[in-house]
Amino acid sequence: MQCYCYGHPEKELKNGDKLASYVSFTIPDIGISFKAAHGGDSRECEYTSLLALLEFVDLNPQLFKDKNLEIYSDSFTMVHQVNMQENVTKEIEPYRQLALKYKEKIPYTLSWVPKENNLAQNRGIIN
User: Fold this and answer.
1) Cross-strand bridge partners of residue 11
2) How far is CA 36 from CA 65, 83, 91, 97, in A?
3) Whether 30 contacts 93, CB under 8 Å
4) Count of CB atoms within 10 A of residue 102's CB?
5) Residue 23: CB partners within 8 Å, gap ≥ 6?
């Protein structure tokens, strides 16, 4: 089952307005989309979106029974960090450890997808 996660840090728009930080995930096969405000820098938002998705999966095992969970993110760095192909800073290490702890009970793969193909940021979410 394909799942997508996306973290968006606060962004200043051309007119000077600010777009608040948020995290989101979507699971198209079962029609689930989630979006919530979240403070933090880009790395924190990216990890928090993954962790929110994994928490949802953990709390709803009946929806994912006997499914291969394929998670996609457009964060190249986060994907490589969680897949142990890149080091993390001490500030981000707790987030990675949580993602790895979930992996012990929820078998999932985490892969990179270009931003324009990340359904979690394209599903009616304003950029």
Assistant:
1) 19
2) 26, 25, 22, 22
3) no
4) 19
5) 5, 6, 7, 8, 35, 36, 38, 45, 48, 49, 52
Phi, psi of 103 (to 5 degrees): -65, -25
pLDDT tens digits, residue range 85-125?
999 999 999 999 999 999 999 999 999 999 999 999 865 44
Domains of the chain, CATH where assigned? 2-122 (3.30.420.10)
Residue 4 to residue 2: CA distance in whole angstroms: 7
Full-model pTM: 0.88
Residue 74's CB is within 10 A of a number of other CB atoms, namely 20
Distance CA 127, CA 108 (A): 28
Structure tokens that stand for 116 in this block = 């324009």
Over residues 37-62, the pLDDT tens digits come to: 887 788 899 999 999 999 999 999 99
> Helical H runs in the chain?
42-59, 61-64, 76-82, 93-105, 119-122
Nearest CA among 42, 12, 13 for reference residue 23:
42
